[in-house]
Fold this sequence. Notes:
Blueprint: E1 5-11, E2 18-24, E3 27-31, E4 33-36, H1 48-53, E5 59-62, H2 63-68, H3 72-77, H4 81-84, E6 91-94, H5 97-101, E7 107-109, E8 114-117, E9 124-127, H6 129-139, E10 143-145, H7 157-177, E11 185-190, H8 196-207, E12 214-216, H9 225-235, E13 245-247, H10 253-261, E14 266-269, H11 271-277, E15 280-283, E16 286-289, H12 309-313, H13 316-324, H14 328-354, H15 358-369
Parallel strand pairs: 4-14, 5-6, 6-10, 10-11, 11-12, 12-13, 13-14
Antiparallel strand pairs: 1-2, 2-3, 7-8, 8-9, 15-16
Helix pairs in contact: 6-7, 7-8, 8-9, 10-14, 10-15, 11-14, 13-14, 14-15
Amino acid sequence: MPAIRYEFIKKCKQTGARLGRVHTPHGSFDTPAFMPVGTQATVKGMSPDEMKAVEAEILLSNTYHLYLRPGQDIVKNAGGLHQFMNWDRPILTDSGGFQVFSLGGMRDIKEEGVTFKSYIDGSKHLFSPERAIEIQNDLGADIIMAFDECIPYPCEYDYAKKSLERTTRWAKRCKEAHKNTEKQALFGIVQGGTYKELRIQSAKELLELDFPGYAIGGLSVGEPGEEMYAMLDCTVPLLPEDRPRYLMGVGSPDYLVEGAIRGIDMFDCVLPTRIGRNGTVMTSRGRVIIRDAKYARDYDRLDPECDCYTCRNFSRAYIRHLIKAGEVLGIRLTTWHNLRFLLNLMKKVRQAIMEDRLGDFRNEFFTSFGYK
């Protein structure tokens, strides 16, 4: 039996977006889904129980960071990530490709793999496709990712083509190295930059390898939204209807809704926790920079339409005070709210698909949030 199974439920008559459910060894999650990022085996500022309270059904952790600290052996000896971080629901680990390639001058790319320097102590390491799979097998996530190259934007055509072809060769090596197929599903990653023909080439090459799920990588790296949507429009229709589709590194509300309309099932991003730590929150009326002086005497909730712990118990004035005073509770409350906001947004997206009105929902939400 495969490690995961995608269950199709319904297609929105208005947009073509799809509603589904992914079944894994550690439970199921509804799609389209946003996956909060727990880079270091924890979502910053949040406990596992709190993540369940905001209705997170699956978390993402990072192979690169966990390999460097605490080390794959420590996680493996603890019984794997689920035991180590006390999370009994699904987990996805990325391959570390994005983090490695974001190091710039601190890494060297060859056919064998990528040699890089640790950001912790400067020590040298080699990530090959085989090594990335070995580490992820030890971490024990339900869904793991092939090792790929995430190219920058903009990128010349010739390099983008060379890179995607190497990513395909690496994907083959990842599949050959992956032995724990009954408990962990390995996803291939479509690359090709912002070139339509390269995206199509990459998708077709990966389809021949027959992965249980497919991710679209190398987007949301600085390109305009219109270019991202164009790449999704030419790529998603090529991907199998019976497999999950994952758009990597995307988490802004507009991209989540537009991605769902284009048939994406899974998203992840550090956005809600990162901007929360900087004192910015997403609300039904757009972004609020709670640090601003105008909120010093604002005793309303962050978002009157939100049901999260933060909005049920504290005022904007109090949260601003905490953040200005450097109190940890302040950024915990903004983080809690932002996570709940995005997870609830996806819940509304799923409901709109069920009711065949996702297009109407998009227009209503974009107007209220302040998008043009």
